[in-house]
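[Automated response] Your request has been received and processed.

Submitted sequence:
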Amino acid sequence: MQVLSAAVVDAALTYDALVPALRNAFQGDASAPPRHHHGIPVPGGTEATLLLMPAWEQGTYVGVKVATVFPDNPGRNLPSVQATYLLHDGATGTPVCQLAGQPMTNRRTAGASALAADYLARDDASRLLMVGTGAMAPELVDAHASVRPIREVRVWGRTPEKSRRLAAELSARGYAAEAVETLDAETVGWADVVSCATMAVEPPLHGEWLRPGQHVDLVGAFKPTMRETDDRAVQRARVFCDTYDGALSEGGDLVQPLQDGVITRHDVLADLYMLTRGQHPGRRSGEEITLFKSVGTALEDLAAAVLAYERAGEG
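Generated structure:
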């Protein structure tokens, strides 16, 4: 059985290859049942989460990801999300590859946001506000820049020093990047794309700060109790998600306003299956606000794992 390290996975999953692979996956007929989601008590800390995420494509590949989410890990200089992936031959069930799951998860999550932005962000979007400074943040910047002409980036996080470090890292990658200390109407209004990847329970992003033409990308808030935007944001925006089954039952940014009657199921206009298959046009004008809520799906993991395995084999 082949073992792909984090470095090999990183090298294989370039966004110019990954985003088309994800598009093909949502257009295809692979199966991805609802993930198993288990809370794990952490003595003296925040409850952790264990995720088991299977998916398969008949006759080709079967895969499963085992992931953990420990929200307190950044204080230990560890990533919140850690994972491993096991890929099997779809005809025999034979294990063929074990992949480092953390970089794969980061890349496929950011790739899904880029795929959505390709339908929902304005073609001329060049300025991105990154809300959050964790491992997902630089990936989301690079992913969006693979589908839109992102040149300027501003970074906001709850810890200013982390914001400055991320801005310096992005500057070294060639972006015109700077850290901002305040998240408000002026900061948010500057951006064409606002991407959020936080562990927030109380929403840091307010809908009243949004302006016409913006695209909002929500990656954090993977539990119903977590939230990155308030009610006003989903009221003002045309709302989309990665999958209906996941986003409408797990992500607090949609679960809470749905439960409270702020929006209805019909206000969530399409998921990535519909967008990639041409069943919904996505953005219809330059002035509307679009909002994409992602919670992740095993279909994305399978597509990323297969791409990494096959590209590594080519080398």
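Summary generated for your ticket: The first strand starts at residue 2 and ends at 4. The mean pLDDT is 95.
If you did not submit this request, please reply to this message.
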